[in-house]
Amino acid sequence: MIYKNSLEGISSAMLKGFFVNWPKPPKLETHLKLLKNSSKVVIALDDNTDQVIGFITAISDDVLSAYIPFLEVLPEYKNKGIGKELVNRMLKELDDIYMIDLCCDDDLVPYYDKFGMIKTNGMILRNYKKQSGS
Fold first, then answer.
1. Enclosing domain of residue 55
2. Largest Cα–Cα distance in the chain?
């Protein structure tokens, strides 16, 4: 397993299999674009297959606030500590930031509790016509 804080050497072809159960998942090129446009990114690579198997992104003003919109691990690699490592590495990247926010489904609250995060209220708006990013 290799963890990287850059997209150097990462192509869209290395991003297959993400956005499971999304009715309109982004294309591979769109996925790469969202990674590139993020303030910070950490990816996990399978060093045997040279495929991205997990990623986490953050959007930040680099002063006081950051938001973590994505944490994903391919289904066949789940429950191996990869997500935990991605979160820990991202939190280290954001160590100088006052507030780090994310939204998650209720069933994931216990997962994020383990990182010292506190449950709060949040509001969202979804434009499902644009779910694929195009």
1. 2-121
2. 41
Residue 133 within a domain: no
CA-based Rg of the chain, rounded to a whole angstrom? 15
Nearest alpha carbon to residue 123 among 95, 108, 101: 101
Going from the C-alpha of 69 to that of each of 6, 43, 47, 50, 84, the distances in angstroms are 17, 14, 26, 24, 16
Residue 87 has pLDDT above 90, yes or no: yes
Percent of the chain scored above 70 by pLDDT?
100
| 109-124 exposure pattern, b = at least 16 Cβ within 10 A, e = fewer | eeebeeeebeeeeeee
pLDDT, tens only, 35-64: 999 999 999 999 999 999 999 999 999 999
| Rounded Cα–Cα distance for residues 72 and 25 (Å) | 13
Give the chain's domain count. 1
d(CA 7, CA 51): 12
In this structure, is residue 34 part of a structural domain?
yes
Instruction: Say what the pTM is.
Output: 0.94
Q: What is the DSSP letter of 82?
A: H
Write the CATH number for 85: 3.40.630.30
